Every structure is written in C-alpha cells, then in structure tokens.
From TrEMBL, chain A:
Family membership: Belongs to the binding-protein-dependent transport system permease family. LivHM subfamily.
Subcellular location: Cell membrane
Lineage: unclassified sequences, metagenomes, ecological metagenomes
PANTHER family: AMINO ACID ABC TRANSPORTER PERMEASE PROTEIN (PTHR11795:SF445), BRANCHED-CHAIN AMINO ACID TRANSPORT SYSTEM PERMEASE PROTEIN LIVH (PTHR11795)
GO cellular component terms given for this protein: plasma membrane
Protein known as: Unannotated protein
Record keywords, A-Z: Amino-acid transport, Cell membrane, Membrane, Transmembrane, Transmembrane helix, Transport
A Pfam family this chain is assigned to: BPD_transp_2
InterPro entries from the UniProt entry: ABC_transp_permease, BCAA_transport_permease
Membrane topology of this protein: Multi-pass membrane protein
Gene Ontology BP term (one): amino acid transport
One MF term in the entry's GO annotations: transmembrane transporter activity
UniProtKB/TrEMBL annotation, chain B:
ABC transporter domain sequence ranges: 341-588
Major subcellular location class: membrane
Keyword terms: ATP-binding, Cell membrane, Membrane, Nucleotide-binding, Transmembrane, Transmembrane helix
Protein name, UniProt field: Unannotated protein
Length: 304, 588
C-alpha cells in the first residue's frame, strides 16, 4: 500500500462517512422521536428519485424544479405513511394492550416492497441516469475526487449543523426533543405529539430523498436502491445511540465510513458490509448500559 | 401435470419455512428478516456437500439442519438479551451479509451458484419425478408440522407466548427468557436450514436469487396473512402465496417478467392492510381451553371466605384446597429458621433521586408483613430490588441466609422469592388458565428433549400443572374464568388471576404489590382471608397496600416508609398511635 492509496481511501472514506452521517441523523430523527421501525425510509428514498425522473419527463419544470418536486413527493410520502398507516396501526395495538413495534415494522416492510415493485413495474429494473448536477472529476496529485463529492460533503455537514441548531435553538426543535425524551410528559405540557411526529417524518423523508438523489447521481437510479442506505443509517444511529444529537451521530457515521473505506486497503471490496456488520456485532455484545437506556427506559419506567 | 406438481411441491417447501417462522414470530413475538438467509445457509451447505463433495442426500440435509441451527444460535445470542428492535436489526444485518457473501465466495459459485447436487435418495429408494419427490416432501412437511405443533402447544410454547406478551413478567415467574429465545431461534433457524437443503436438492441447484430479501418478505407474508400464532394458518399462507404466481401468469395473463412485480405489490399491500385491519391474520390464534366437563375439573366454585356464609363444609373444602397447594418439592436454603428475607443498609439512587436510602427490614418466616407509606416512598422500588429487576447500589438482601444481590430475576423467583405487579402484567392474549399454568415451575414440557423424546413424562407433568393452576384459580375464585382471555377480564378479576399466578410459582416468599386495588368489596374480604391463611401453608407474604381496613384484617407487621427510608415499624395499631404519622399519612 502506498501513501497515495491511503490518501485516496481517506478521501473516499470522508465522502462515504458524510453520507452515513446524514443517513444516521435523518433515520434516528424519525426513529428516536416516533419509536417506529421505519423500513419504508427506503420507499421515500426511492420515491424522491423516481418522482424527479417522472417530473423530468412529464413536467415543464427547470432541473431544480424536478429536484424540488422529488423532495416534496418524499416528504408527502413520509407524512401520509405516518398519518394514515402507522398511527392507526399503533393505536390499534395500544388498544389491545400490545407493543406496536412489530405490526408497524411489518406494515413498513410491506410499503417498501410496494414502492420498489411499483417503480420496477413502471420503469423496469434497468438503471436510469438521474443527475443532480453536471459532474466533473478533479485530481490533486494521485488523489481523485469529483465536484459531486465536494458538493455532497459540504451540503451534508451544512444540513447536519442546521439540524443541530434547529433542535437546540428553535422552539419547534425543543418540542421535538421533548417528545423524544419523554412523550407522556410532552403531552402533559401541551405539545401536540401527532404534529411533531408529522414534522420529523417530513424532515427525515426529505433528507432521505436528497440522499437518494445523490446516490443516483453517483451510480444510477434503480429500484433496488435504498435498502443499503437504510441499513447504514440504522447501524450508525444505533451505534451512536438513537437519542443522541445529530452531530454525535454524524461523527460516528464519519468514523464508520473511514473504517469501511480504509479496510479496503487490506480486504477485498466485497467484504465492506461485513466490516460494518462486525462493528455492529461487537457493539451489540459490548453494549454500554448508557446506550441501552433509550430502549430500556420504556421498561424500567413501568416495573417500579 | 409436471408444472402443477411442481407448484404443489413448492407449497410444501414454503410451508416448512412458514411454520418455523411462525414459531418465532407468532409464538415468541420476534420478527426476523433472516429466515430466507437461514434457508440460504442450509441450501448452500447442502449445495457444497452435495455438488462439490458428492455427499449423499440424507447426510447433506442433516448437516445443513444442524449447521443452520448452530449459526442461528450464534447470530441471535448477542441480540436476544436486548429488546426486539435489536433482533430485527441483527436479522436484517445477517440477511444482508449472507446475500453479499454468497455472491463473493468462489467456492459457492458466485452469481450462478452451484448445480447438480446428486440424486434425492433415501434408504436405497430414488425420488426422481416431482410426484415421487412430493411423497417425500409431504412426509417431511408433516413431521415439521407436528414438531412445530408439539412445540407451540406445550409449556415451552406457553413460555414463548409469555415472552411475546410481556417478557418482564415472564422473567418474574422464574423463566430464563433469554434461554428460551435462544432455543426458539436456534430451532427455527435449523428448520429453515432444512427447508433450504430440501429446496436446493429439489431444484438441483443453489443460487443467490433463491434467497433474496423478497423471499424473506414472502415468508413473513405467509405467516402474517395465515395468522400469527396459528400453524394451520401458516400452511394456508404458504399455499395461497405460492399459488399466486401461476394464477397471475395463467389466469390473469400477466407477462411472467412482470408477474413477480405484481405479486410483490400484492404481498406488500396485503401486509399493510392486514396490519391495519386484521393484525391477527386470517386464522386466529388457538387457545388451550378446558372442556367444561373435562377430567378433574369441578364446576362449582367455593364460597368466598370472610363473608360469613361459609359453613363448616366450606371451611373443610378450603382446608383441603390449601393442603393440596402446600405440597412443594422445591429445595430451599436452610437459613436460621426465623427470617425469610433480611435486608440491611439497602441503597438505590436514580441519578439525584434517592429512591431507597438505607433500608433495614426483616420478613419473618410464615408471617404477613406490610409496607405502607405515601406514593414515592420507595415501596415498589424495594420489590424491584428484592427480585433482581433493579440492581442495588449498596446493602444486603438475603433470602434464608443466601444473598440475592447480583442474581437474575428468574433465578431469584426459582429460589423462592416472587413478586406481583401493581398493574398485573398478565399475558393479555392468553387465558387465565394459561397464565397461571405458565407460572408452575419445573414443567417437563419446557425442555425440548423431554418434549420430543419423553412424551409420557410431559403428559404427566402437564396434567399436574393444569391441576395446580386450577387449584390456584379456585383459591382466588377465578376458576369459572379459566377459559377467558385475560384481555377480556375486568381489572379486579385480573388482579385475582395475578395473585393466583404468583401463588402457582410455588415460591415461599410472595411480594404482592397492591393486590386489592380495583377489586370489589366481597372479593377484597376474600383476598384478605386468603392472604391471612397463606402462612398456614408455609408462605411468607409481604404486601404493599394503601387500604387500612384491609391491613387491619391481616394484622400484619407494618413498615412505614417515607422518602426511601423506614421511618418506623410495628402493628398497624401501634403506628396509628403515633401522632405525626396519623396526621401525615393516615389523615385521621
């Protein structure tokens, strides 16, 4: 391995890591606040990209308009899923005294395959091109990078900062944190938790859509995309601790990206997911109690 | 004929997957997206052994079965001690890893997989045509069905359902829930591996396309649509979903290349709609019910105690009942013969809150002790500490001289200290009888070995558990509700069933958390009389209670707690004489 190989992998790691950072932050925003096992994150990820492609072909909008249209569709999907499907299922489970986790998860899985297969039905499974910007490659010595990568890294960290500031400094943000930390208490002090759920689904879904558009610009749009993204978002959010702020999750995402990318110096590329899986496994085994609090809170609160 | 026979065989193969997944999802309440991945483990094991190493069919299948089970245990082990979210995450990760590794390992044939696994032959007989293979598959399918049925309907299955309904309450009854979950996960993974091995031998090839996420979702759809917790439903689900492919292609005439998309859209939409409108699936879960005139079941309840109208005969009947319940075979630590539970300097702080702050108390053997005091005094926290649900910061908790600190809740319960919960925590989707039966300790049917190889022992143990459970229900007057789902019982009735369930554990020390809140007057008197009599059958009781009339009746030794410390103790009368206390708490 040479110095420039290490440099190249570090650059790739920063790009991947920044993607994981935003995936983790957007995924955890939804999951930690609503406690929904939202596999259909994939549906919104996919929905934004194909809605933008549809708009490109059918609507007389400028390119930026197609992008905006895709993001709006993603937000709508997230909001409608929560308002008309998850909420009902959770209410029904609660009436029967059960845990809504698994029913919501199964419905979410169902929505995901509906979305994937509707896309496959309409556009077929061939990869399509969808580009956010006209891409261009640069090199610095032996290290290569693209305009898209630079844009992604800058934009992602800007969004992460904005998300952090929103949660920390705005009134609406502190309501979100309130619901996340203690939903019952939040309700008691007059926060409309339903509205907060809708809000986080909207934000999370727009971010999912944006990430989907970046992936399709880097590789191509295909119906099978999104599952990897959700998986990474999930792992990052879990390892960082779901209830943590976006910046801490972002740092963990960056580290996971760097580890995965640098592992390619020693391991064949196809083992990259195995590396992430190992991180997850080690973490689950050595799980610090502090991290478990998010999930155990529900139970410990009721046994005393 | 060849085509339709092929579809029938697929139905049998998928039934094997759906049945085993139902044990995991429907009974134990653990969602897994890795069921197809375990099929891949079995399929590739059989593929490598059959195609590359030319092993015989039965040898390859048996190894696939065992290896999938072992991997199932190893994969689930880190996640099963954690809440369900982690199990889903881990199975997702496992499915993902299997999918990406089978493609990248050359020995597994990469994208194309392995072909030519060798004949399906057993005891010298070859099964070649689909209709010949059908006979073999049906035989194996029926065995799997019966094995799953046996598991689901046994005490083992009852514990799994308990975990699904309320894992914490299951632990409180002395069940090592993680152990049960690991066994369930391992067994169902092994059966998925078996299904995988049969599948690849049937098609004479193993490839990555056979074990995609779509397959895993199809399996989940079979279980969910057929009915979670209902095994016949899983077979129904497998049949309906497998039949949908040829129906879409041949009846609706959808282009085969698009039929898969249509099919997946239908599954997906069905999953969503079922979760919204009929989460239990087409067939509802079965419940073990007593036949009204069944053996050993006496219809007439005993007249409640403490209402004056009992008479000598009723008293006699009571004595008999209590004597029956008193017999226990559990070995207890010797102790000093005076104190059941000794607590010294017990401390538990939650952050800045001093929930328990240096508590000393004794529960004398064969006596009733009460913990009283305002809300937030630390009474329920003490129960949590005694039974291992909350770990103490400092102090001594000894049961008959044996320290309980650092023990798991189920170990403490097995040893003889059991708690009930203020909010009952009954298993709502199980009958009262099933609830109480699940608490009976030492049932042979909780071991897979006995379940499949010592059926006579299991039958005897099951019969005795049922008799014990019925006796306990009679004690609290709930035997007439033995067959009622706990979700359908009134709150007061649930409280009584919860007492019966705690009694059924056979524990010597019973910690009852507000046993009569919400129970109507007549039954409250009855419960008081029953609790008063528990010392006669060797029980030590500690109750948290606010109802002074009830405590008066019990003539218990009372500990008055305030802000996490024992302020004073003595008989209720003595406590009432204390001016400050009377003002502060008794408000008289």
């Amino acid at each position: 391995m040479t110095g420039s190989e290490v440099m190249q992998q570090t650059v790739n790691g920063v790009v991947d890591g920044s993607t994981f950072a935003l995936l983790g932050a957007s995924y955890s925003l939804i999951t930690s606040v609503t406690k929904r096992f939202h596999v259909a994150y994939v549906a919104t990820y996919l929905g934004a990209v194909y809605a933008a492609i549809w708009s490109e072909d059918h609507l007389p909008l400028p390119h930026i308009g197609d992008i905006a249209f895709g993001l709006v569709v993603a937000a709508l999907m997230g909001v409608l899923i929560e308002a008309y499907i998850y909420r009902r299922i959770a209410a029904r489970a609660a009436r029967r005294g059960g845990d809504p986790l698994i029913p919501v998860f199964i419905a979410s899985l169902g929505l995901t395959i509906v979305a994937q297969n509707v896309v496959s039905w309409v556009w077929n499974t061939q990869p399509l091109s969808f580009n956010l910007i006209t891409n261009k490659g640069y090199s610095l010595g032996d290290v290569r990078y693209t305009k898209l990568q630079v844009l992604a890294v800058l934009l992602y960290w800007l969004i992460l900062l904005a998300l952090w500031a929103f949660l920390k400094w705005t009134k609406q943000g502190s309501r979100v944190t309130g619901v996340q930390v203690n939903p019952q208490m939040a309700q008691v002090v007059g926060i409309n938790t339903k509205r907060i759920f809708i809000l986080v689904f909207a934000i999370g879904s727009v971010l999912a859509g944006l990430l989907g558009m970046f992936e399709s610009s880097t590789v191509a749009a295909q119906p099978s995309m999104g599952f990897n993204a959700m998986f990474y978002g999930f792992v990052v959010a879990f390892v960082a601790g779901m209830e943590r702020g976006p910046l801490r999750i972002a740092v963990v995402g960056l580290i996971v990206g760097l580890i995965q990318s640098l592992s390619a110096l020693w391991l064949p590329l196809q083992y990259a997911p195995a590396v992430v899986f190992s991180i997850l496994l080690v973490y689950l085994i050595l799980l610090p109690t502090d991290f478990r609090r998010y999930f155990t809170r529900r139970t410990t609160a009721t046994i005393t | 004929m060849g085509l339709s026979m092929n579809i029938v065989n697929q139905m049998v193969l998928f039934s094997i997957f759906a049945l085993s997944l139902n044990i995991l999802m429907g009974f134990a309440g653990q969602a897994s997206i890795a069921h197809a991945a375990f099929g891949a483990v079995g399929g590739y094991t059989a593929g490598v052994l059959g195609a590359t190493h030319h092993w015989s069919f039965p040898a390859a299948v048996v190894v696939a079965f065992i290896l999938s089970g072992v991997i199932g245990v190893l994969v689930s082990l880190p996640a099963l001690r954690l809440p369900n979210e982690f199990v889903i995450l881990l199975t997702l990760a496992f499915a993902y890893i299997v999918a990406s590794t089978v493609i990248s390992i050359d020995a597994l044939g990469g994208q194309y997989g392995l072909q030519g696994l060798g004949d399906i032959s057993l005891f010298g007989k070859k099964f070649v045509s689909p209709s010949e293979v059908f006979i073999l598959l049906v035989v194996i399918g029926v065995i799997v069905f019966l094995a799953c049925w046996r598991l689901g309907e046994s005490s083992f299955g009852r514990v799994l359902k308990g975990i699904r309904e309320d894992e914490l309450a299951t632990k409180a009854l002395g069940k090592h829930t993680v152990g049960f979950k690991v066994v369930a996960f391992g067994t169902t993974s092994a059966v998925a591996g078996l299904g995988g091995a049969l599948f690849v031998f049937y098609y004479q090839q193993v490839s990555p396309q056979q074990w995609t996420l779509n397959q895993a979702i199809a399996m989940i759809a079979m279980v969910v649509l057929g009915g979670t917790g209902n095994l016949i439903g899983s077979v129904l689900g497998a049949v309906v979903i497998t039949a949908s492919t040829p129906i879409l292609e041949n009846v609706v005439h959808i282009n085969p290349s698009r039929a898969t998309f249509a099919q997946m859209i239908i599954y997906g939409a069905a999953l969503v709609l079922f979760m919204m409108y009929r989460p239990e699936g087409i067939l509802r879960e079965r419940h073990g019910r007593l036949r009204a005139a069944g053996k050993g079941y006496v219809e007439a309840s005993i007249t409640p105690l403490g209402v004056g109208n009992g008479g000598a005969e009723n008293q006699q009947e009571w004595k008999k009942l209590l004597d029956r319940v008193a017999t226990t075979t559990v070995q207890r630590p010797a102790g000093d013969g005076v104190t059941a539970l000794k607590v010294r300097g017990l401390v538990k702080h939650f952050g800045g809150i001093k929930a328990v702050n240096g508590v000393d108390l004794d529960l004398p053997l064969g006596k009733v002790t009460a913990l009283i005091g305002p809300n937030g005094a630390g009474k329920s926290t003490l129960f949590g500490l005694f039974t291992g649900f909350i770990s103490a910061d400092q102090g001594v908790i000894e049961y008959r001289g044996q320290s309980l600190r650092g023990m798991r809740p189920d170990q403490i319960a097995k040893l003889g200290v059991v708690r009930s919960f203020q909010d009952t925590r009954l298993f709502r989707q199980m009958t009262a009888l099933e609830n109480v039966m699940s608490a009976v300790p030492g049932q042979s049917g909780e071991s897979l070995l006995s379940l499949y190889f010592l059926p006579w022992k299991v039958r005897a143990s099951n019969r005795s558990a049922k008799a014990i459970a019925l006796d306990q229900l009679r004690i609290v007057g709930m035997d007439r509700h033995a067959n009622t789902l706990c979700a359908d019982l009134a709150h007061g009735e649930q409280k009584l069933v919860a007492i019966a369930r705690a009694l059924a554990t056979g524990a010597e020390v019973l910690l009852l958390d507000e046993p009569t809140s919400g129970v109507d007057e007549q039954w409250m008197h009855h419960v008081a009389e029953t609790i008063k009599r528990l010392p006669e059958i060797g029980k030590t009781v500690c109750i948290v209670e606010h109802n002074l009339a009830f405590l008066e009746r019990l003539q218990a030794n009372c500990y008055f707690l305030e802000s996490g410390s024992v302020r004073t103790h003595g008989s209720l009368r003595e406590l009432m004489e204390n001016e400050d206390l009377r003002k502060a708490y008794f408000a008289v």
